[in-house]
Design a protein that fits this description.
It is a single chain. With about 190 residues, the chain is an all-alpha fold. It is built from 8 helices and no strands. The radius of gyration is 29 Å and the shape is elongated. The two termini are about 50 Å apart.
């Protein structure tokens, strides 16, 4: 004996055996057991591959890293700056101390927002969390809104040009808006089926 070669199974119609005949054909010329697993399908169409349901998103990773850095600066430098602006309780009007305290508490709320958004974006960017269009849209509108309202606040206070540069958090928010938008548009949403 001669060993069977690739064309023998197709010509003879007999099933492949362990002697080296090719495996039986399934749908579309693929190996039947592998065809059921969609092995010949492109990677983006294969639900058994992790990159289909869970894919890394560089846009979200960049936004999350930027937010983590902003959180650190906000927490340490911002608190130091805000503490230096504390009014003297003995000489300042009572409303000034109350307004400062409210601003101080609001600053801590922003710290939590920055930290949670950074965590969500990093975990989404790494593919640990599943994609959520509505939550991503929420973050997109949040950062866009923060950027626009920051600029509107400066305009309403008739702040000079140096304040637009010195209080440039609006740039951060608009960059985050662009990164989240890039992440939403740059990678399609996968179905769970």
């Amino acid at each position: 004996g001669r060993r069977p070669f690739l064309g023998d199974a197709r010509r003879t119609g007999r099933r492949a055996d362990s002697a080296g005949d090719p495996p039986p054909e399934g749908r579309g010329g693929r190996h039947a057991p592998l065809a059921d697993r969609r092995v010949a399908a492109p990677a983006y169409a294969r639900p058994d591959l992790p990159q289909n349901g869970i894919a890394m998103n560089g846009w979200f990773l960049a936004a999350g890293a930027l937010l983590a850095a902003a959180f650190s600066v906000h927490l340490f430098s911002g608190n130091r700056l805000y503490s230096a602006a504390r009014p003297d309780a003995a000489t300042a009007p009572p409303r000034a101390c109350e307004a400062w305290m409210m601003g101080r508490c609001g600053m801590q709320m922003i710290s939590v927002d920055l930290l949670l958004a950074a965590g969500f974006l990093v975990l989404s960017g790494l593919g640990v969390l599943p994609r959520s269009f509505w939550f991503e849209l929420f973050l997109l509108l949040l950062f866009g809104g923060w950027g626009i309202f920051w600029l509107v606040s400066l305009a309403c206070e008739k702040a000079g040009g140096r304040y637009y540069l010195r209080l440039c958090q609006w740039v951060l928010f608009l960059v985050l808006f662009g990164l989240v938008l890039g992440g939403m548009l740059g990678q399609p949403y996968c179905s769970s089926s």
